[in-house]
Each structure stands twice: as C-alpha cells, then as structure tokens.
C-alpha cells in the first residue's frame, strides 16, 4: 500500500475494528455465539447489546480521542514522548471525579462524568493562562503541564490517603482506566467528529507546523493561531476521554507513532487513521481486561501498558 493512499489504510483499519468489535461482543465471562446477536429471544441477546455493546463503543470513543489528542500534542511540542496527559488535563478530571467518589458516591454516573469533563477543561484553561504570551510558548507549555500534573498527583494522593477501604478499590480502578461504568452520549461522539473535521480541514498547515514553528511562519502559516486550535482541540478530546474512563496510558503515545510508521507523516492520513487505530488498540486492550482472568475484570490501563510497552520499543527500534 502506498503511504500517500488513504483508502487502503482506512479499509485495513476498518476491518480490524470490525473484527475486534465482533470478538468483543462475543467473549467474556459468558461466551456467546453469533446467533445470539440477532435473535431478541435468545438468552444471551441482552448481555451482548445492553452490556458489551455500550462498553465497546466507549472503548472506540476513548481510544480515538486519546490517539488523536496524542497526535496533536506531539506535533505541537515536537516531543516524541509527549502524550495527552502532558497537558495536566487528566489531573483536573481525576481530582474532581475522585473527590465526588469520595464525598458523593451516590451521584449519578453521568453527573460525575460531566463534572470530570468540567474539571479537565478548567485545568486546560489554567495551563493556557500560564503558557500564553501573545502565542503559546511550547517550551513553557511542556514545563507547566508537567508541573501541574505533579501538583494534581499530590492532591490525588491525598484523596487516596483519606479514602475509606471500601472506596479505595473503585478509586484505584478509575485511576488505572476503567470502562465498566462509562456512559456514552451523543454529544461525546459529536465532539470527536467535530474535532476530527476541523483538524482534517487544516491537514496541510499541520504538515508544515510539524517541521517547526519558524518554518511554518516563513511558509505563510499562522503558527500562533494554529497552535491555539491544536491545544484547544487536544484538551477537549483528552477531557472527553479522561472523564469517561480515567487515565489510560500509552494509547496517545504509541498509536500516533505506529500510524506514522505505517502510513507516513501527512496529516491527511494520520488524522483518520489515528481515530481508527486508537479505537482498535483500546478495544483490544479492554477485551483482554475482561477475559484474561475472567470472571475477574482488570483495569484496562494494565493491558494498554502490556501491549504498548513492547510495541513502542519495537517501533522506536525501527525508526531511524
């Protein structure tokens, strides 16, 4: 497949997503069969469509958000180790949602998700305030993001230290990535599609920006404005993902590198393929988290790390 041809790669990753989705719907504590998917009277029909289907959709949504956000952050800060959590946005969501688990665990899940979303956006606005001097200074952004992440980590450690034993497990599960209680709503998919559409319309300026801000300015690209778009959309996507499923490592770090190695460096390919590959990566990890030690369910973040570490090392070895 030619690296500049979108159709074959899109078809490939779409088939991967479809196969993983079918596997995810039919394996678990109770293995089902294909017949149960299409017969409403089948004993396993509700297990597939009321439990596994929403969780699979959440995995696709969160994986796509983290992958696309990681692609944007790596472009903006020019750091191959950057991921969505570099912004410290995850710490804002974690602080709010763990506080709600600790103090008001009876609140509906959707309220906790929306509160976490608001907390992450406030953290992003704080980071922008600290790093904006007429334009985003990416060096300041990186340093401030790391420091804010450490600050939120200290608050989270305090919350964990104060938590009673019966709440500790749910809080730790959320911190390590948990899709079991996530609730997808139409607005979350709208946010993802909105961000992807805007970014795709700017794929040529993003290609130029990836070569450096000075090069972008000399090429006639408004680097300051484009960096604001990149920051805002990356923060928005990260907020959706973290509020939904906690802090899931390696998706936003590994998937953009994998897609670049397979399909080149043009954002016309990277943007749609990051969505598909990120969703596939997290869906595969979540299926493993439900089945490896079934009926025990493990945090999905364990398996994104188990898969992500060797994949990243292999990709890094193949990169000049």
What would a concise description of this structure say?
The protein is 76% helix and 0% strand.
Written overview of the protein:
The chain is mostly helical. The chain has 2 domains: 83-247, Orthogonal Bundle (ABC transporter involved in vitamin B12 uptake, BtuC), CATH 1.10.3470.10; 248-320, no CATH class. Helix content is 76%, strand content 0%. Helix 5 packs antiparallel against helix 11. It is globular. The two termini are 21 Å apart.
List strands and helices in order, with pairings.
Elements: H1 6-26, H2 34-38, H3 45-77, H4 89-103, H5 109-131, H6 138-162, H7 165-175, H8 186-201, H9 203-209, H10 213-218, H11 223-245, H12 251-263, H13 267-291, H14 300-318
Helix pairs in contact: 1-3, 1-13, 3-8, 3-11, 3-12, 3-13, 4-5, 4-6, 4-7, 4-11, 5-6, 5-11, 8-11, 12-13, 12-14, 13-14
Comma- or semicolon-separated keywords:
320 residues; mainly alpha; ABC transporter involved in vitamin B12 uptake, BtuC; 2 domains; 14 helices; globular
Report the major sheet: none
Q: Indicate the CATH class of the largest domain.
A: Mainly Alpha
Structural class: mainly alpha
CATH topology of the largest domain: ABC transporter involved in vitamin B12 uptake, BtuC
Number of helices: 14
CATH superfamily membership of the largest domain: ABC transporter involved in vitamin B12 uptake, BtuC
Unreliable runs, pLDDT <50, ≥5 residues? none
β-strand amount: under 5%
């Amino acid at each position: 497949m030619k690296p500049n041809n979108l159709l074959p790669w899109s078809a490939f990753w779409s088939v991967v997503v479809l196969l993983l989705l079918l596997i995810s719907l039919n394996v678990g504590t109770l293995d089902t069969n294909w017949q149960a998917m299409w017969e409403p009277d089948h004993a396993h029909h509700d297990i597939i469509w009321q439990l596994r289907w929403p969780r699979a959709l959440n995995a696709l949504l969160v994986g796509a958000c983290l992958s696309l956000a990681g692609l944007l952050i790596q472009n903006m800060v020019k750091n191959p180790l950057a991921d969505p959590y570099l912004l410290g946005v995850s710490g804002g969501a974690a602080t709010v949602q763990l506080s709600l688990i600790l103090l008001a665990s009876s609140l509906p899940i959707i309220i906790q998700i929306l509160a976490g979303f608001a907390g992450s956006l406030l953290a992003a606005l704080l980071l922008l305030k600290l790093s904006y001097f007429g334009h985003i200074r990416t060096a300041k952004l990186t340093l401030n993001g790391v420091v804010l992440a450490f600050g939120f980590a200290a608050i989270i450690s305090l919350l964990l230290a104060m938590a009673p034993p019966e709440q500790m497990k749910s809080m730790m599960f959320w911190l390590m990535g948990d899709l079991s209680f996530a609730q997808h709503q139409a607005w979350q998919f709208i946010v993802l599609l909105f961000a992807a559409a805007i970014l795709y319309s700017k794929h040529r300026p993003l290609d130029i920006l990836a070569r450096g801000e000075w090069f972008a300015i000399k090429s006639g690209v408004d680097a300051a404005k484009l960096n604001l778009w990149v920051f805002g959309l990356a923060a928005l996507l990260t907020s959706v993902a973290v509020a939904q499923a906690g802090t899931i490592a390696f998706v936003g770090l590994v998937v953009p590198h994998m897609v670049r190695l397979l399909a080149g460096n043009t954002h016309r390919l990277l943007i749609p393929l990051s969505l598909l590959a990120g969703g596939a990566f997290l869906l595969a990890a979540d299926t493993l988290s439900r089945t490896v030690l079934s009926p025990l369910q493990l945090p999905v973040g364990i398996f994104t790390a188990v898969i992500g570490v060797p994949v990243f090392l292999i990709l890094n070895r193949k990169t000049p």
